[in-house]
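Retry 2 of 3 after timeout on previous attempt. Resubmitting structure tokens to design endpoint.
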């Protein structure tokens, strides 16, 4: 493939075009006696399928190709625009929206607006042989964002982008932890230990998020707490500020629960004592049996001596 003819400041003459790709010759190779010339890549691909000149059909081979140095030098000296110049079509579209050339009036477009249109593309123009060198430093070449946000950013706008990239490093103003900008909102809304949050029980107090659980478990007047008689079976969970009231309101109920609990415990303990006594009696029986056996066996030994 050759160079896009659109890149050239002046339409290149037809001798500089490759008839295989219809573009301006890149590394031109002369292939036959007639001097027919094609891009090196184009004719190499052509030769893989057929061994004839694409124009005059005479027999050719890889060995008959000769570089056209003069044509290459002449093409290299032609003026081209940068690959990243404003496309003429885009430009015309943008221009006609501000300036209606068919009205017969002189174009009144402000120089600033003109410059803004120029901003759409690189204004570099130079010899084709210098294009590669220019592209090394052209600010309009898009590069992937170095912070990894996935955006493709023109080199000249990298600094501007680094100020608004979602992956740029920022510091949480509350806890001073560093993080990518895209995580900040969630961090503040859900995680930041220093962000001031209102009490979740709506007692009206505000505190750093990391103190909330201590506040709820030790201080908050609206946090439901266990009744002191929970072990006795009271399932009421009054708010901390109402605990004393609950204790005095439910004194009779608590006393009833305590009595019931005591009775249940007593019954359980009596059951255990019964079971232990029974076991004890069984063990005593076995011990007595063993004692008898022992006495009898020692009497038997004495008799034998
Ligand atoms: Zn070609
Ligand atoms: Zn030929
Ligand atoms: Zn450029
Ligand atoms: Zn980015
Ligand atoms: Zn934070
Ligand atoms: Zn509270
Ligand atoms: Zn209670």
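Retry 2 succeeded. Sequence:
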């Amino acid at each position: 493939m050759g160079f896009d003819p659109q890149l050239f400041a002046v339409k290149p003459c037809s001798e500089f075009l490759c008839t295989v790709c219809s573009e301006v010759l890149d590394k031109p190779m002369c292939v036959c006696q007639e001097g027919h010339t094609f891009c090196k890549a184009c004719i190499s691909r052509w030769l893989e399928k057929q061994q004839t000149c694409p124009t005059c059909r005479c027999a050719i081979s890889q060995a008959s190709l000769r570089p056209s140095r003069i044509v290459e030098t002449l093409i290299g000296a032609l003026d081209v625009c940068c690959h990243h110049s404003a496309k003429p079509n885009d430009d015309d579209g943008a221009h006609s929206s501000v300036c209606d050339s068919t009205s017969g009036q002189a174009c009144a477009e402000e120089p600033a607006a003109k410059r803004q249109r120029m901003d759409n593309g690189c204004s570099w123009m130079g010899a084709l042989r210098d294009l590669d060198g220019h592209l090394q430093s052209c600010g309009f070449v898009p590069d992937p964002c170095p912070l990894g946000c996935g955006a493709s950013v023109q080199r000249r706008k990298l600094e501007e982008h680094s100020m608004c990239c979602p992956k740029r490093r920022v510091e949480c103003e509350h806890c001073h932890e560093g993080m990518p900008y895209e995580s900040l909102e969630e961090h503040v809304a859900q995680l930041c230990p220093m962000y001031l949050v209102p009490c979740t029980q709506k007692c009206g107090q505000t505190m750093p998020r990391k103190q909330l659980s201590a506040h709820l478990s030790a201080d908050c007047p609206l946090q439901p707490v266990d009744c002191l008689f929970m072990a006795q079976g009271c399932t009421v969970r009054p708010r901390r500020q109402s605990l004393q009231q609950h204790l005095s309101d439910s004194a009779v109920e608590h006393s009833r629960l305590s009595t019931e609990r005591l009775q249940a415990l007593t019954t359980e303990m009596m059951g255990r004592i019964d079971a232990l006594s029974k076991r004890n009696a069984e063990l005593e029986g076995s011990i007595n049996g063993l004692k008898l056996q022992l006495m009898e066996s020692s009497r038997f030994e004495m008799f034998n001596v």
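Attempt log closed. The radius of gyration is 48 Å.
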